[in-house]
Design a protein that fits this description.
Layout lengths: L1 H11 L5 H11 L4 H15 L4 E3 L11 H10 L5 H6 L4 E2 L7 E4 L2 E4 H15 L9 H11 L8 H10 L1
Parallel strand pairs: 2-3
Antiparallel strand pairs: 1-4, 3-4
Helix pairs in contact: 1-4, 2-3
Length: 163
């Protein structure tokens, strides 16, 4: 209960949003307090435009979240965040539907993890080049763009885009 009070104080000091605390209490309310804290920090970081929360940011040091130092006294210094998070029903490695996904040393909101996988899949797909009949392309571009003494950059751009 003390952690919940500290999280609410963080809202008053504008370190967290009410949404961050509500998310944490909803998905990890009865879990280990470290899971609740990680959920609140993950939600906060997502609200600031970050895709994930690196576990290294959960270590109690000056470079991490300002809120973390005050909460570590409540939850105790954890030696293995990964083990603690994976023991929670709110966290998985992505093999089952959970609100948070632990992938490597990064904690994601489920939807952010799914989005990142979709983007990665797109870039990892083999893209085959389309064979272009260069003579036909040149003939078509000559019809579309009149001949001139200067370089026609629109024609060049069209040629580059098509090849």
């Amino acid at each position: 209960m003390k952690l919940q009070k500290q999280l609410l104080e963080a809202v008053e000091h504008k370190q967290l949003r009410p949404l961050d605390v509500q998310f944490a209490l909803t998905v990890a309310g009865d879990e280990h307090p470290a899971v609740t804290l990680a959920a609140a920090l993950l939600s906060h970081d997502a609200g600031e435009g970050h895709v994930c929360l690196p576990l290294s940011r959960l270590e109690n040091n000056e470079a991490s979240h300002p809120l973390l130092a005050t909460c570590v006294s409540e939850i105790g210094e954890l030696q293995n965040w990964e083990e603690c998070l994976l023991a929670s029903q709110a966290v998985s490695r992505g093999d089952e539907p959970t609100p948070m996904i632990l992938c490597g040393d990064r904690l994601y909101l489920n939807r952010m993890w799914c989005n990142e996988r979709t983007v990665a899949r797109f870039f990892n797909e083999v893209n085959h080049a389309i064979e272009v009949d260069e003579a036909l392309l040149a003939q078509t571009l000559d019809k579309l763009f009149p001949v001139s003494d200067e370089i026609n950059w629109q024609k060049v751009a069209a040629a580059v885009a098509l090849t």
